[in-house]
Amino acid sequence: MFTNDDMQAPENWENWIGFVQGLSPETDPMATRIIDDLRQVAGLLHRISENSLAPSRLSSAKYRLLMDLLYIERVHGRWELSPSEISKRQGTSRNTASTLISDLARDGLVERQLDQSDRRRFHIWLTDAGRAEVQANAGIHLRAITGCFDVPGQDDKEHLGRLLAKLSRYPRQGSRSGATPNDIR
Asked: What's the per-residue H, E or C state across 13-81?
C-alpha cells in the first residue's frame, strides 16, 4: 500500500491500479482508492487516539472498553457486562477482550467476579478508579479524535456520515458481486 504522499503522484496511483487489476481485472479503481484512503484515515485516527491517551498509559482499546462500561452504567443502568458481551460490543475476539479485562483488572480500573450460579461466567464492572480514569481523559481524548473532522465543513461531515452508514450496512446486505465478509476468511 502507499502512503497518502505516495498516492499524490499520478504514476504511482496508475501503477498500483494496474497491479491490482492484474490480480483481479473486474476491480473498480475508485473503490480501490476509497479503500486505501479509508485505511489511511483509520490509521491516522488510531494514532491520534493512542497519542491522546499516552499520558494515561491506556491504549485506545482499553479506554474504549472503560468508556463502554461507563456508558452502560449511565445510559442503560447496567452495572456489569460479561466478557462475551464486551467482546461483541468492542468488535474483538474473546481472547483480546479477556486480555484487556485482565490488564484493566490488574490496574484496578475494573473488577471481575465469578458468577455464583454459573461458575463458567464472569461479571465485569468499573471501579471508582476506572470511572475517574474515563472522566480524566475524556476531554482531551474526544477533542483529539473529533478534531480530525474540523477540516471538512458541516455539509461534508454529514455527507461522509451518511456514506459511512451505508457502508457499515454492507455485511448485513452483501454486495452486488455476491461476496460477503465471510468469503474472505
From this structure: HHHHHHHHHHHCCCCCHHHHHHHHHHHHHHHHHHHHHHHHHHHHCCCHHHHHHHHHHHHHHHHHCCCCE
Minimal CA–CA distance to 101: which of 80, 115, 71, 117?
80
DSSP class of 126: E
DSSP 8-state code for residue 125 = E
Spacing of C-alpha 102 from chain mean position: 20
- For residues 181 and 172, give the distance between their C-alpha atoms in angstroms, rounded to a whole number: 10
Strand partners for 110: 126
The backbone region for 3, taken as left when phi is positive above 0, alpha when psi lies in -120 to 50, beta otherwise, is: beta
Backbone angles phi, psi at 124, to 5 degrees: -120, 135
What are the b/e assignments for 130-161, b being 16+ CB within 10 Å?
A: bbebbeebeeebeebbeeeeeeeeeeeeeeee
* Prediction pTM value: 0.76
* Per-residue pLDDT tens digits of the chain, which is 185 residues long: 555 555 567 788 888 888 988 998 888 888 888 888 889 889 999 999 999 999 998 999 999 999 999 999 999 888 889 888 999 998 899 999 999 999 999 999 999 988 778 777 889 999 999 999 999 999 999 999 888 888 778 888 888 889 888 888 766 555 555 555 444 43
- Bridge partners, residue 124, by sequence: 81, 112
